Amino acid sequence: MFIKNAWYVVAWDHEVKLSEPFARTILNEPVVLFRTKDGRIAAVEDRCCHRTYPLSKGKLNEGRIQCGYHGMTFDETGTCVEIPWQKNVPKNAKVRSFPVVERAHWIWIWMGDPELADPDEITDFHWMDDPEWGAKGTVFHVDCNYRLIIENLLDLTHLAYVHQSTIGNDAVAEESETQCERHEKGVTVTRWMIDTPAPPTYVKAGGFETNVDRWQIIEFTPPSSVRLNVGACLTGTGAPEGKRVGGINMRNLNAITPETETTTHYFWAQAHDFNVEDPEVTELVYQQVHAAFSEDVSVFADQQALINCNPAATRMNLSGDAGGLAAMKIIDQLVKAENTATAE
Question: What per-residue confidence (pLDDT) applies to 172?
């Protein structure tokens, strides 16, 4: 079901504080995050090895986590370092720890074999803390399997029907030129809408009064990162050839982290390279995308409810599904390879 030997976003940096532990379930496994005395991030199994009590219901003591049931204290490696009412600490008094990396305001966790965890493999989301870009994001808890969100982001024809009031219009579905490419690192879907009206969000952000040339370049990187290069320029000014000065450029940044088979932590942010010095522009862009994505969350829940009623029901595939189908094939192959290696 899940790829475990991979990096997933587990939290925003501001969610994990020095003062208290933070709990989150990832790939069906309860995890507790906390900060050490010097502020470094740590993640361990949220299950005390003594009597199976959630460590997240305990407290932090000098950068270590103390179980709220019997007072056992664990360090960032998951090793018990103190039992208040017992002098000797058994050698097997420990819980599993997980590799974690804090980068571009997201905290990444590796749920598989820690020997395989390479921080260089973390997907690049530098736009979120690049001074040349303004950015803001959040996390949604979504009642659906994570694959539904990946499919949604790789087929933007739905913008014409779900998001008419913000980022969508008929041109997305009816007048787009679309290409899908599967490559070594994932899938890229490229969509161009030439000489079409700008959708409401683009009008508000870019002030467009005439038709635009609009692009959507979507990159899927397994297991569940989706980055969108989106924007628009006045039509006929050379946007398809790379001349995109004078328009608006944005990055929609998505990290989709499975919680269980039917629930997902959906981390996302919207970045822009115009009027970066104006926080009101960042807030405008964020609120527009937030409204659109909130509509998607409702769609996901409705899909999952029907899937739960009849998991064996078949689905029809159309041309717009090419990117999502390619991504699902990659995920299936990686899950199969990982399961085979584990069995061996």
Answer: 53
pLDDT at 83: 96
Per-residue pLDDT for 175 more than 70? no
What does the H/E/C string look like for 61-87?
Answer: ECCEEECCCCCCEECCCCEEEEECCEC
What is the reported pLDDT for 76? 98
Would you mind telling me the total number of residues written for the chain in this entry?
344
Residue labelled with tokens 């097997």 = 92
Q: What are the chain's domains?
A: 7-121 (2.102.10.10), 131-339 (3.90.380.10)
pLDDT of residue 31: 98
CA–CA separation, 40 and 18 (whole Å): 9
Instruction: Tell me the pairing of strands 134-142 and 264-272.
Output: antiparallel
8 Å CB contact between 81 and 42? no
And the tokens for 29? 């496994």
Does residue 65 register a pLDDT over 70?
yes
Cis status, amide bond into 223, omega within 30 of 0:
yes
Phi/psi for 299 (5° steps) reads -60, -45
- The whole-number pLDDT of residue 42 equals 98
Checking phi first, is residue 186 left (phi over 0); if not, alpha (psi -120 to 50) or beta?
left
Distances (CA, A) of 210 to 63, 195, 229, 232: 57, 9, 22, 11
The one-letter code for the residue type at 251 is R
For 48: left if phi > 0, alpha if psi spans -120 to 50, otherwise beta; the answer is beta
Q: In this predicted structure, what is the pLDDT of residue 164?
A: 66
Given a cut of 60, is residue 230 above it in pLDDT? yes
Sheet holding 248-258, edge to edge: 134-142, 264-272, 248-258, 225-234, 212-221, 186-196, 176-183
Structure tokens at 122: 């973390």
Average pLDDT score over the chain: 93
Largest CA distance in the chain: 77
Cα–Cα distance measured from residue 145 to residue 155, given in angstroms and rounded to the nearest whole number: 17
